[in-house]
Amino acid sequence: MEGRLSEEIEVKVPASEAWKVYGSLQLSKIVVEGLPSIFSKVEVVDGDGSTRTILHLFFAPGTAGPSSFKEKLAVVDDENRVKVSEVVEGGYLDLGFTLYRICMEVIEEEGQKGECIVRGSIEYELREEAAANAALVSIEPVVAVMQDVVWDCFFTDFE
Q1: What does pTM read for this prediction?
Q2: Which of 21, 81, 89, 94 would bridge 106 by S-S if both were Cys, CB 3.0 to 4.6 A apart?
Q3: What would the 3-class secondary structure string for the chain be?
Q4: What are phi and psi of 55, to 5 degrees?
Q5: Annotated catalytic residue: which of 12, 29, 41, 83?
Q6: Domains of the chain listed by start with CATH number
Q7: How far apart are alpha carbons 149 and 132 in whole angstroms?
């Protein structure tokens, strides 16, 4: 079984400025500081924020499910402003998923100087015997991260 969820928000800053945050390790720091009810800590296991960097993310105490997971940055494409991470240990993989991928894209809006779109998406695959766990997948945490960056870094209303 496989699936994909996606959501977009409008950000009233140039794509190059938004990418400085979404495309860097600064994103991890913002996530922990801005969303303490979801994540308690993010550690860089290996790497500098470029492709193949491994992060260990810890959920806040009291959250349902696994306590942590490790993800690898599979793609960090500065030219196209795309970051793709894949869970490589724990988290959804412990629940029967064979793939759990999060993608963040910063897209320059045509004809709108100083504005961009940030698209977050989740792609997943899971074993047939764990198909009921597809109900656990939600785009809401990704949207919360996207919105938190906007509030913390750009102080911008989003629509």
Answers
A1: 0.88
A2: 81
A3: CEEEEEEEEEECCCHHHHHHHHCCCHHHHHHHHHCCCCEEEEEEEECCCCCCCEEEEEECCCCCCCCEEEEEEEEEECCCCEEEEEEEEEHHHHHCEEEEEEEEEEEECCCCCCCEEEEEEEEEEECHHHHHHHHHCCCHHHHHHHHHHHHHHHCCCCC
A4: -115, 145
A5: 83
A6: 2-154 (3.30.530.20)
A7: 32
Report the alpha-carbon distance of residue 27 to residue 21 in Å, rounded. 6
- The label of the residue with tokens 């409008």 reads 10
Q: Are 87 and 100 in contact (CB under 8 A)?
A: yes
Task: Give tens-digit pLDDT for 4-49.
Answer: 999 999 988 889 999 999 999 988 888 888 888 888 999 999 999 9
